[in-house]
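Here is one chain, start to finish.
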Amino acid sequence: MSITADRPTTFSFPAASGGPADIAARMPRRHTVVTGDGMDGVMQLATALQTCGRPLREFSVDVREGVAYSSVTCTMSMTPAEADEFESRMLAIPGVLAVDPY
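Its structure:
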């Protein structure tokens, strides 16, 4: 006997989701965001990613001394429409030069 066999299980979709179709279209999408503001730009990107409301499956930063550009690579589950919105949202941040989806 499993622990969950004695409890009824229910599942409801979040209010903002489109239901089963939304969940089916959602998949991990990886993006690299390039900034020219060094560590300050990377920290600003990290703050923006925290406010996206989606858990990050992957987050890596590349900041090197003497290199003009820094980058953040992240993976989040999104629908195609959310991925397009993510790109435009990141490009609206001052200092962001490019957003490259994989």
